[in-house]
Write a structure and sequence with these properties.
The protein has a single domain, classed as 2-Layer Sandwich (Nucleotidyltransferase, domain 5), CATH 3.30.420. The protein starts with 6 loop residues before the first strand and ends with a helix. A hairpin with an 8-residue loop joins strand 1 and strand 2. It contains seven helices and five strands; from the N terminus they run βββαααβαβααα. The strands form two sheets. Strands 1-2-3 form a three-stranded antiparallel β-sheet. Helix 6 crosses helix 7. The protein is globular, with a radius of gyration of 15 Å. The protein is an alpha+beta fold. Helices cover 45% and strands 16% of the residues. The longest helix has 15 residues.
Length: 159
């Protein structure tokens, strides 16, 4: 079975000047890749409350994260389609733009938001489906790889 590609990016905060800290995307075979992202020198935004939710510290990003450039190279190598399925197109594009802007590049993708590809037309139904699947599969809404797994499962159940 071939799957569309899904993308989720975790942020340093809920603010407009947040930066990406982790990124996960799926491949056409349904496997998931994820990585932590080392902050650029001018990425200063950090919310300790969000850190408590996702469990990723700034020290962890510096010690275990990949450079933004390495993340971009790997992500682009894996791109099989310029249309990525996402839950929140605006926020995902803001964070992807921030990553690419650090290197003077434009993201080579377009976002297709959940409400456009989900067969559930009502936003409350989509939200409830997401919550049900998270509970059923033990997924965290604060871990990007879990959220990609969630989106894959939503897509799979609609086929």
């Amino acid at each position: 079975m071939s799957y569309p590609q899904f993308l989720v990016i975790d942020a340093s905060s809920y603010e407009m000047d947040a930066h990406p800290i982790a990124m996960a995307w799926s491949l056409s075979d349904g496997s998931i890749k994820s990585t932590l992202i080392q902050p650029e020198d001018d990425w200063q935004d950090w919310d300790p409350g969000v850190e408590d939710l996702h469990g990723i510290s700034q020290d962890t990003l510096y010690q275990l994260g990949e450079t933004g450039w390495e993340v971009i190279k790997e992500f682009e190598f894996d791109l099989e389609n310029p249309h990525l399925m996402v839950a929140d197109a605006d926020r995902t594009m803001e964070l992807l733009d921030k990553l690419y802007d650090a290197f003077g590049k434009e993201p080579p993708v377009e976002m297709v938001p959940l409400y456009e590809w989900s067969k559930l037309e009502d936003s409350e139904q989509r939200y409830q489906q997401m919550e049900d699947i998270r509970a059923e599969m033990g997924l965290s809404p604060y871990r990007c790889e879990d959220e990609v797994r969630l989106l894959l499962e939503i897509w799979n159940r609609q086929q």
